[in-house]
From TrEMBL:
<dbReference type="InterPro" id="IPR004731">
    <property type="entry name" value="Transaldolase_3B/F6P_aldolase"/>
</dbReference>
<dbReference type="InterPro" id="IPR018225">
    <property type="entry name" value="Transaldolase_AS"/>
</dbReference>
<feature type="active site" description="Schiff-base intermediate with substrate">
    <location>
        <position position="83"/>
    </location>
</feature>
<dbReference type="InterPro" id="IPR033919">
    <property type="entry name" value="TSA/FSA_arc/bac"/>
</dbReference>
<dbReference type="InterPro" id="IPR013785">
    <property type="entry name" value="Aldolase_TIM"/>
</dbReference>
<keyword id="KW-0963">Cytoplasm</keyword>
<protein>
    <recommendedName>
        <fullName>Probable transaldolase</fullName>
        <ecNumber>2.2.1.2</ecNumber>
    </recommendedName>
</protein>
<comment type="function">
    <text>Transaldolase is important for the balance of metabolites in the pentose-phosphate pathway.</text>
</comment>
<dbReference type="GO" id="GO:0004801">
    <property type="term" value="F:transaldolase activity"/>
</dbReference>
<comment type="similarity">
    <text>Belongs to the transaldolase family. Type 3B subfamily.</text>
</comment>
<comment type="pathway">
    <text>Carbohydrate degradation; pentose phosphate pathway; D-glyceraldehyde 3-phosphate and beta-D-fructose 6-phosphate from D-ribose 5-phosphate and D-xylulose 5-phosphate (non-oxidative stage): step 2/3.</text>
</comment>
<dbReference type="InterPro" id="IPR001585">
    <property type="entry name" value="TAL/FSA"/>
</dbReference>
<dbReference type="GO" id="GO:0016832">
    <property type="term" value="F:aldehyde-lyase activity"/>
</dbReference>
<dbReference type="GO" id="GO:0005975">
    <property type="term" value="P:carbohydrate metabolic process"/>
</dbReference>
<keyword id="KW-0570">Pentose shunt</keyword>
<dbReference type="GO" id="GO:0006098">
    <property type="term" value="P:pentose-phosphate shunt"/>
</dbReference>
<dbReference type="GO" id="GO:0042182">
    <property type="term" value="P:ketone catabolic process"/>
</dbReference>
Length: 217
């Protein structure tokens, strides 16, 4: 499973990148707002830090304008994936931009039918939003499972990018189902390392080690 980091905070990306945990980065207008940075400037900086795909989202609502914005964002670096919303216009933009050789991430996906359309339009990535489905009392994992089944039924190459990951359980379940990629906030990725039994075990090892009176260094 590839790990994308869902943030525009460059210091947090750098920390995970140094550990080899970053296969790509995803941003969106809300994350750009949170960073307080200029979209072109911060996207360029991120694209220089990581070698994998860096998603940068268009903000236009018509296909022609999305295409123009997408072309501009794609000029930032060779590893930009243009992010377009899953609307009819977004699908048109996806088709054109993938035809021009750009990676396209179709975002705000909340149904298997939407994911099917994105694959037909040639999307590189489809981003089903797990947490936002959970927010309205639906199970976001059911959607990941349905998309996996449909894409495998027909051999679609569009990668399932599990997004809106809020918990470590989301990450684990998406991996078990076979999502190709997950994008998660840095805090969720770091929390995946935690287990109370690890902490308890370490504490007892440290106590016993102290009793030996030995040193390694
Ligand atoms: O990648 C999309 C993701 O950022 C949305 O997450 O937590 O705002 O639903 P969230």
């Amino acid at each position: 499973m590839k790990f994308f980091v869902d943030t525009a905070e460059t210091d947090q990306i750098a920390e995970l990148n140094d550990l080899g945990m970053v296969d790509g980065v995803t941003t969106n207008p809300s994350l750009i707002l949170k960073s307080g940075r200029d979209i072109l400037e911060v996207t360029r900086e991120i694209a220089e830090m990581v070698s994998g795909p860096v998603s940068a989202e268009v903000v236009a609502l018509t296909a022609d304008e999305m295409i123009a914005e997408g072309r501009k964002l794609a000029q930032i670096a060779g590893n930009i994936a243009v992010k377009v919303p899953l609307t009819w216009d977004g699908l048109k933009a996806c088709k054109v931009l993938t035809g021009e050789g750009y990676m396209v991430n179709v975002t705000l996906c909340f149904s298997a039918n939407q994911a099917l359309l994105a694959a037909k339009a040639g999307a590189t990535f489809i981003s089903p939003f797990i947490g936002r489905l959970d927010d309205i009392n639906l199970d976001g994992m059911d959607l990941i499972e349905d998309i996996r089944t449909i894409y495998d039924n027909y051999g679609f190459e569009t990668q399932i990018l599990a997004a809106s990951i809020r918990t470590v359980n989301h990450a684990c379940q998406a991996a078990l189902i076979g999502a190709d990629v997950m994008t998660a906030p840095p805090a969720v990725i770091k929390k995946m390392a935690e287990h109370p039994l690890t902490n308890a075990g370490l504490e007892s090892f440290m106590a016993d080690w102290a009793k030996t009176g030995q040193k390694i260094l």
